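SEQUENCE-TO-STRUCTURE ENTRY
===========================
What this section holds: a protein sequence and its matching fold, both as plain text.
Question of interest: how does this chain fold, as expressed in backbone structure tokens?
***
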Amino acid sequence: MPRWKALPEELDPQVREFATQLRRLVDKSGLSIAAVADRTGYSKTSWERYLNGRLLAPKGAIVALAEVTGTNPLHLTTMWELSERAWSRSEMRHDMTMEAIRISQARDALGEFGGDGPGASRPGAGTGPRPAASGGWHGPESPATPPRPSTASPAPPTPPAAPGRGRRRTAIFVTALVGALLVIAGAVLLTDLGGGGDDTAKVAESPPAKPSPTASELPAGVKCAGDDCTGEDPELMGCGGEFAETATTTKVGTAVVEVRYSETCGVAWARITEAAPGDTVEISSTQTDAQPQTGTVNADKDAYTPMLAVPSAAAAEACATLTTGVEGCTTAGG
């Protein structure tokens, strides 16, 4: 049975060449996919996706593979950059195709109603009879009835405003506005001097919340930060690899449970290795009420959870429940 599956036919030629090169490096190293996963810090499932062309490996995984296989990382990252551009172009074409399909479906759906809804254009719209100013009706071919001269006496002209009247009104308005602002400012000042109570003091002493970095502030390849990452795959969103570290580790039965933390993304996730199919692992925050995230071990004997936004690595706790009934957790902050 061949070691590698056939690459998808729709794969971009540049990405296909890159995936083939990665396979050659793994073959040359003599390592199994599980060994590559163990030495690079990326899961076996992820490497299977990378090597089978179903997902473009993040740059951190490529650098780690170069170190494991003794390959010049410069050459490998150059190929990765070309593949990343090709992958982005393919995704853009896919998005445009799906958008065209949705537009076509919407048009077809509207066509089922005959296009006679409110505001729908109809043949000859705008060319039918319309009301004239005199209250009658005439079409575009019929000239409008010429206006008749009025017999009413013309209204007397409005006398010009007295010189300086407009300036005096403006000055009075500005003076009143300044007075009102001074009254408001005095009331606010007196309120602050009189003591706003405990609640006011607490608000004044509370440090401002640290804003999440914007997309332009994130490193290349990182696609989210903070709450936007919760529930997302850390490797797909670029928070793993070089941007992650193991914060705490513990043994639960024969399994190893870790808290993986990314300061760049402001998130944590749990990873379990040397486990059995059916074992589960969970990441939770000891400082927030955020919903925990869970992962289940499959035949690969390892698993990791989706990400969870946490204020720090010390606030993250990973717990495992084995099929044997054994349970255990890491020590938050330890």
In short: The first strand starts at residue 130 and ends at 131. Helices lie at 13-29, 33-40, 44-51, 59-69, 73-111, 165-193, 197-205. Residues 116-147, 149-153, 191-209 have pLDDT under 50 and may be disordered.
